[in-house]
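Deliverable D4.2, example record:
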Amino acid sequence: MHKKNQTSVTTFLLLGFQNHHSLNILLFLVFLIFYMVTITGNLLIILSVSIFKSLNSPMYLFLCQLSICDILITSNIVPYMLHVILRKEEIISFIGCMTQFYLFGTFATTECILLAVMSYDRYVAICNPLQYVSLMDTTKCFNLTILSWLIGFILMLFTVFQVSRLNFCGSNVIDHFFCDLAPLLLLSCSDISFVEIENFILGFPATFCPFTFIIATYIYIFTTIIRIPSSIGRQKAFSTCSSHLTIVCIYYGTLVAAYLFLSKEKTSNVSKVISLLYTVVTPLLNPIIYSLRSKEIKTSLVKLIAIM
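Output generated by the structure prediction step:
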């Protein structure tokens, strides 16, 4: 009987932006342009880091991984979202929905870990510059990168496994533009308390621990920068971490708004706007922020475009 109830819903209906049908063409064009700019910007950074030796430092190698993560996040969400906007609603299979949810959670978790790794890199560079080469050697950078991706893929397995075991025996309509956790739990006719507790517990190593680590490293970084006697030296030291700090504020700000302060009483439109920030806007802004704030990236991009 349990198995029968579990498989009674085999597809989900994504409504997308149901209340804005008159703006469908405009929304499609805007998100298509955002997607193209996101892919182009992040690909340019990946190519620049891969081609130019001046960018072969741990900071830019981690930035390259961040760009890969941004491409995967937006590519997992936006193409199907564009399809939903054009069709005004679209059916997605149960397996397809679980796959999209798993990949989104994996890439989002990996990005959180990568941002923490990048903050550690800036901490070593500013607070322990004499030991930077030995502490951030090629082997350690490789291990930190692999560990970031592994944590993302492994942690999400537990959540997706539990969500896939829930009973979906009522409505199959998801008032969202992709398969996220909150709208899926609203549709379940099972007891979701265990999934919510598990998701909260897994949120510590996935988001809370990296964010706490980032805060701790930047406390040490700012303390070190303040002690630098030269104003030029302080400005130069701060400029090396300003891009990363800006991205951290944007990314974690949207996650906090989405999963901590966004109550169930809020409208679905508010939820969609918050989701757009970390699935569409943040991947778009990351390469732009680094391009504008990093002279090395800016110079390399100019050279790369000239070559192309």
